[in-house]
Recover the amino acids of this structure.
């Protein structure tokens, strides 16, 4: 994509798909009208947190469109109208926010099934007369999507700067002086005239006290973060954001910044990062106070201490929803933010498994396919769905390539022919794929086109997705066991990515807001195989391309002064399959397994992977922290399904390509 290309507006249905993907379910109901002997249609649209039902229409398409519009209205999403967006003034946008703020503090909104209405009801019951009924501006900016959409029309960079959204809310509130009171000492708003007593009395319901486990990410003076468990005690007369503010050392909820929803717990509740609203001016202060771990998790700059919790109000209920977040679940969420981590979690093998280097064939791949992983990754990083473009070209079949390869190998000693002179009979067509990834604002983030042709269209798509995943994985090296680097040479790819100056806005959740050294130095395609034991010191009994089944256990192990080792089981699997030779298991484990025989049991020790990975796998995080010394593997080889001769030849070619690409590039 070039800078001059026009950005295409998404249709309402495309917006729903972009937001929810397969989680949006449409059901068309037939409505029979006997008096006219006609059939009308009603559409039921089910989204993760609520559902809508359309009016009846003569056409199915009209009922579906009506349901989509109702859902977008409830979400506060305005389908993009280019003429409106291009011509709206700041004053008109502010006026829209003014009217919305007035509605938020109306009698009608107080009883609405809206998360922000639940926040408002909670503030009306909080302890302390001076703070009662005051709604934090951060809550308005976070939970009212209509205001958020208006702010984005005024200023497109709202996605990366929540403080800017809050500033527009405060400006609009100042224009509503006849209806809304702006707190003089805090970022909170209240209604100027009290609510009728009957409405307030109707809110007085019994609420049980709640204890919620959360994670406290402390920012120390030594430029590092300490992650500890914390308990939020939320009594019936306390607003939960006030409790979080107290844990952060803040006065009240008006000083709390609320992140976007980051991920969900096992029960489906949203997790967010809560921190202090940034009030630092100098760049040195910002650098000293930046909480790198919290910034990594939520995808925006966080300064000072932060709390990671799953607590809040939803569309489903007026009650406060919550679920405990332990250190283990926190580190699993961190792990699941990288492409490699998504694959590890899907295989239930955080220590043993890793995202393969290559996609060879559908039947040998285990876990979610690369295209599916890339879609999940883009959704969680607030990127648009990846776009795959397939092209075809005349190509030789794989059997012809293998025949040519063997011929060259046999004749190379006589120097009779060369690769360029070899005749390669056969005809057909091959597939190549381009994958393009854009930000939600349709700015280019990643664009890669494979030069290599594949026999099957799906193979081209999956390998293109895998290249994109490998590229993005380099931004998460310290969260993975090792950084994934694509096993391809410059001749295989035609790739471009966004400039460093714009990368922070388009890819919000990178741990460090700079491109990794490997990209800055131009060595983007140095192979991960440099650290893989391609030339094994021992005899490899299992051929590349084989499907292997193993049973294994992984223990944290620390030698005791008394002579007896202390061990803690952190991962086990009674039966897991993987393909040899493509990096789908960590190199230590795969190297040992390929030297084993079926039925053989082996025990061996290695060093530690990334600490965060160990804590994500361990059941007892506190005990695991005392045993961070090394790992012990117990492995039983259950079975081996050898590849066909063609598969072995193909795997050998792939391995030799990997050997060649592992050589350092020279200037």
């Amino acid at each position: 994509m070039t800078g001059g290309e026009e950005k295409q507006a998404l249709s309402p249905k495309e917006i729903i798909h972009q937001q929810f993907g397969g989680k949006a379910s449409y059901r068309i109901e037939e409505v029979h009208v006997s008096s006219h002997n006609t059939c009308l249609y009603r559409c039921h649209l089910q989204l993760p947190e609520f559902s809508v039902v359309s009016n009846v229409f003569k056409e199915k398409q009209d009922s579906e469109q009506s349901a989509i519009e109702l859902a977008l209205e409830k979400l506060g999403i305005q389908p993009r109208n280019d003429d409106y967006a291009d011509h709206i003034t700041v004053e008109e946008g502010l006026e829209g926010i003014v009217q919305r703020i007035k509605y938020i503090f109306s009698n009608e909104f107080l009883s609405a099934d809206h998360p922000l209405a639940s926040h408002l009801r909670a503030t009306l019951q909080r302890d302390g007369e001076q703070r009662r009924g005051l709604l934090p501006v951060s809550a308005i900016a976070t939970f009212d999507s209509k205001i958020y959409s208006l702010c984005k029309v005024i200023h497109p960079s709202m996605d990366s700067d929540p403080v800017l959204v809050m500033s527009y809310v405060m400006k609009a509130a100042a224009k509503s002086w006849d209806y809304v009171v702006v707190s003089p000492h805090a970022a909170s708003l209240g209604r100027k005239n009290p609510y009728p007593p009957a409405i307030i009395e109707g809110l007085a319901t019994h609420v049980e006290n709640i204890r919620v486990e959360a994670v406290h990410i402390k920012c120390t003076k030594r430029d590092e973060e300490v992650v500890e468990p914390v308990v939020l005690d939320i009594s019936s007369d306390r607003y939960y954001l006030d409790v979080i503010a107290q844990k952060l050392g803040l006065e009240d909820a008006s000083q709390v910044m609320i992140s976007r929803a980051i991920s969900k717990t096992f029960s489906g509740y949203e997790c967010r990062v809560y921190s202090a609203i940034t009030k630092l001016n100098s760049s040195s202060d910002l650098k000293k106070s930046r909480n790198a771990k919290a910034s990594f998790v939520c995808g925006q700059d966080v300064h000072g201490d932060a709390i990671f919790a799953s607590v809040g109000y939803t569309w489903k209920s007026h009650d406060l929803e919550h679920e405990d977040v332990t250190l283990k679940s926190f580190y699993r969420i961190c792990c699941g933010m990288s492409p490699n981590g998504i694959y590890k979690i899907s295989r239930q093998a955080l220590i043993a498994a890793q995202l393969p280097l290559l996609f060879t064939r559908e039947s040998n791949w285990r876990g979610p396919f690369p295209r599916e992983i890339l879609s999940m990754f883009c959704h969680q990083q607030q990127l648009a769905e990846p776009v795959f473009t397939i092209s075809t070209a005349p190509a030789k079949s794989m059997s012809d390539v293998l025949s040519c390869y063997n011929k060259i190998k046999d004749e190379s000693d006589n120097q009779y022919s060369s690769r360029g002179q070899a005749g390669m009979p056969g005809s057909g067509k091959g597939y190549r794929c381009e994958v393009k990834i854009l930000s939600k604002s349709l700015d280019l983030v990643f664009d890669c086109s494979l030069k290599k042709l594949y026999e099957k269209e799906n193979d081209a798509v999956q390998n293109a997705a895998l290249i994109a995943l490998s590229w993005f994985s380099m931004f998460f090296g310290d969260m993975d066991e090792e950084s994934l680097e694509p096993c391809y040479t410059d001749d295989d790819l035609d790739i471009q990515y966004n400039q460093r100056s714009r990368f922070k806005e388009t890819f919000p959740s990178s741990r460090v807001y700079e491109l990794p050294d490997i990209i800055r130095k131009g060595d983007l395609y140095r192979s991960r195989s440099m650290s893989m034991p391609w030339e094994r010191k021992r005899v490899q009994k299992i051929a590349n391309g084989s499907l292997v089944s193993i049973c294994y256990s992984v223990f944290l192990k620390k030698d005791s002064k008394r002579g007896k080792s202390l061990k803690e089981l952190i991962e086990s699997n009674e039966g897991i399959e993987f393909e040899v030779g493509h990096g789908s298991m960590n190199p230590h484990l795969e190297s040992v397994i390929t030297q084993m025989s079926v039925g053989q049991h082996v025990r061996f020790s290695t060093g530690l992977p990334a600490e965060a990975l160990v804590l994500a796998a361990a059941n007892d995080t506190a005990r695991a922290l005392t045993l961070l010394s090394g790992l012990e593997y117990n492995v039983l080889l259950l079975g081996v399904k050898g590849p066909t001769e063609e598969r072995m030849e193909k795997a050998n070619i792939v391995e030799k390509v990997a050997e060649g690409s592992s050589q350092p590039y020279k200037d």
Observations:
- The CA atoms of residues 249 and 305 lie 9 Å apart.
- The longest strand covers residues 566-579.
- The chain has a mean pLDDT of 79.
- The chain has 24 helices and 21 strands.
